[in-house]
Amino acid sequence: MNRRQLLWGIATSSMAVSAPVGFSRPAFAQGFPSQFIRIIVPFPAGQASDVIARMLADRIAQSLGQPAIVENRPGAGGNIGSEAGSRAANDGHTLTIATAALPISKVIYRKLAFDPVADFAPVTRLTITPLLLVTSQKLGVNSVAELVDYAKKNPGKVSFASSGPGTSHHLSGELFAALADVKLLHIPYKGSSPAHIDLMSGQVDIMFDNIVAVGPQVRQGNLKALAATTKTRVATLPNLPTMAESGYPAFEAVAWFGVLAPKGTPRPVVERLNAEFRRALAVPEISQKLEQMGAQVSPGTPEEFGEFLVSEVAKWEPIVQRAGIAID
Question: Cα–Cα 20 to 30 A to 220, which of 92, 159, 263, 318?
Fold first, then answer.
């Protein structure tokens, strides 16, 4: 599927109407929501996607007048939960939290029972956040340069954790290995939380992870941050250098979170959900908390989010091909 076909599929899926016979589009929209909202998080409780989903669920529940329940369905780099979300009834009552892992899955997995992009109706992007390169305190390195030097002296012995194959954590590690010309050992986990446990104990050496998830461990001294993956320094960690400042100007990677509905969700429902999530993100209590966590609030229209998903596929595909990553 080429870029034009993919964009067209996303646009039509978000505009398609699947209403009961005899109901007009406005009537369907006016009856929404008629039951609780289920928000599927394709990763374990406690990591960034879960934290943000639960923060917004309470506000969404208040504004929609229905309970909003967060359901964690981790596994396969987020594909188990995402597939469940894509197959849910397209009435707007089941939503899926999307991360950078979703468009990556489109180019890294040879066999998927769903299309990670075309089988969804984009609702809105929520936030953009930097990743941090963190290391176990036991590794004994204090900078990216020291890490690279250690890795070159110990080829294949430095391990890096990810929240699953094909996630942004995984590809960030592969990109770093390629740019630094070092051999690293990839250790995939079913989410960030179990990876953090092994990272803090020294069972695994380094990890690229979202600042929302790993920032508290850095501030508490349980993990050591070596660099941020954005072009500019992180406001909440002003003394932390970027990967570019550490000698790798070509390295840039950000994590992001968004909301998706199943393909065919009626356009008025998508628009209602978009408005509610944007309204929730504008609440000072929520926006300020997100900023304190290191996340940049970044909502937009459904069309803008759809175009962003397509651009993410194009961004990661050459990196996947260069690293020779493919998962059956």
Answer: 159
